Amino acid sequence: MARFWGCVVKFSLALLASSALVLVSNDALAQSSRTRTIELEEIAVQAPGGEQGRAITANGYVATSGRSATKTDTPLLETPQSVSTVTQEQLEDRKPQTLLDAVAYTPGIRTGGYGFDPRYDAFSIRGVDVTYTGVFRDGLRQVNSPNGLFRLEPYGLEAITILRGPAASIYGASSTGGIVDLISKRPTKIPFREVEVQTGSFGRIQGNFDLSGPVTADNTLLFRLTGLVREAGTEIKAVKDDRIFIAPAFTWQPTDATRLTVLGEYMDSTTGGTAAYVNDYGPYVDRQGNITFKSTGATKVFAGDKRYNDFRQKQGRIGYEFEHRFNEMFTLRQNARFSALGTNQEYVSVGDAGLVRENNWGLVTDTNLETRLRTGTVDHTILTGLDVSRLSYRSKEGFGGVPIGIDPSLLYSSRQTQTLTGVYIQDQLKWQNWRLTLGGRHDWLTSSFKSGGAQYDRNDKRFTGRAALGYVTDFGLAPYVSYGTSFTPNPGTVLTGGVAEPTTGEQIELGVKYDLPGTNASLRAAIFDLRQDNAVVYEVVDGLNRQVQLDLRSQGFEIEGVASLNDGLNVQASYSYNDARILKLTPETEGNRLTSVPYHMASFWLDYTVQEGPAKGLGLAGGMRYVGSSLGDNLNRAILDNEPRTYLDAALRYDLENLNPRLKGMRVQVNATNLLDEVSQVCTSGYCYFDEGRKVIASLRYRW
């Protein structure tokens, strides 16, 4: 651990010493003690001095502007692409414990395809798996390796932006299905202090703290320190849910035009090396009459062994966000982050112990210049940038040959290095009510993979682009059409050996957005048609879960409505239809539906806070998540069909100051997910799991 932080310090000093740019970031308004009142306060997350450059501006549940879709501060109504936002108020009301919990009410996102599995945040957007290539942190790609995926602590977030559809024209390596941008908590000018204790299902004990405010009297230096400690079990006795998390942040703003924010994080977490159940295998007759033995579903027998099942991961990151506004025309930004993680995964399979140790290191930088100008009657917001990222990982594995509880010898090793360099330009044109966005990017990728005595190298280059046209009416209606392409390098190898082919894709989308006049509410709807080639997925091949590449086509429709009304009522509702088909994988799967992608998904969340009377400050909330039927493997065998299911969630809270003014700032809250304990089998890629059961968490929070 000392070696890791030593590398971090050396990297930071070298970067600060060698950079030709001064470093800065954006401001955030304080999160004061939240009391639901008739007047909703607009909260700006990561706002620089002035109105430009905001990451998210939100009013309760409703986000009004953001930067994730364009890297510039653009009203969401004028952004010609599907964007959803999980705001700070939504996070506080629902208290998600994982990234999957946080995005579960977002249209088009399929969570739970692998049942209860706390090891990875595996999910898809519009039928496209985005686990490895779709998660970004503060606008920068989150670098992952085959067994080294960064874990998320939702308590460390201000908000989450979900951008559906390709964004490679400005982000480079990213999924065709879209990206999820995780926005870290940042320092506030107004002092903010919070402590919280939690308890709940499976022996859960947790303590949180979140402290922020100015360090100097002139507000030129701000700080924030967020952290938690948790000891908990899960519904599987062999699987822990322990965690230590701390995230320091500092903002230095010597002038209104210049700002630097440094963001750090360290997390030490332990969960289970396997969370799977033993699957039954039985005879299966295919269309040609051949008899094979295939999985017939999961049993309730745990596939691992509690004596050897700890999956410990240590991860850290440190980076900065810099912004300097030269004048009203030019603004320079540079973001950079160094990250590292190490894993030690113990597991037992077929009576033998297995061990995987993996370390990865990533460096990501993005420098861009925003230029605002006017040509005749057309306003331009031009963005030009350079984006460089580098991934390096080493993996060692061993299996069998020793008694359970003893580490096997690590006989197999591999390593890989990927470097991606991209240059991009984007122009957002505004003429009367018309909005036109044009963007293009060229990437150069080098990749080197070593395994044993073999080495495989690849060099690729690719152009990606985006074109979108929208029309914004004076009464809040904004139809649009967009087209974009994507390009994504893949870590690891495939069955044929060597470095995996990069994934490419394209999408066309037609949508409409509507902000209800005079009401803090918005509606969004879109239809889409996307294609992705050489996508890396997991498929059971010869009885083993292996990486393979497929071509797919996904078509569908989505609609979402969000509102925070003046009477203490918050509403969030969504519906999505998705038809994902295999174009190329194996001859017998061509034209089949993609595994575990349902046609229909829907969700509804209703939250109400009593405004007056004896029950003032009492908050009641309930949610419903519906997941339609899907197919358990890419052969589309009926034996592994996933039946439709409905999950109910609930929340209850009360601000204790309504009982006694001396208790101002104290809140008691209870959250329950899967309240009715709906636990069914879910199969993906030929292997079956079980849904996560009911989980209840009670908390006591004090803000001052």
Automatic annotation (TrEMBL):
It is found in: Cell outer membrane. SUPFAM superfamilies: Porins. It is a multi-pass membrane protein. It holds the Pfam family Plug. The keyword Transmembrane applies. One of its GO terms (molecular function) is signaling receptor activity. GO terms for biological process: siderophore transport. Residues 251-675 form the TonB-dependent receptor-like beta-barrel domain. Keywords: Cell outer membrane, Ion transport, Iron, Iron transport, Membrane, Receptor, Signal, TonB box, Transmembrane, Transmembrane beta strand, Transport. GO terms for cellular component: cell outer membrane. InterPro entries: Beta-barrel_TonB, Beta-barrel_TonB_sf, Plug_dom, Plug_dom_sf, TonB-dep_rcpt-like, TonB_sidphr_rcpt. Residues 1-30 form the signal peptide. Residues 76-179 form the TonB-dependent receptor plug domain. NCBIfam families: TonB-siderophor (TIGR01783). Belongs to the TonB-dependent receptor family. This is TonB-dependent siderophore receptor. It comes from Microvirga brassicacearum.
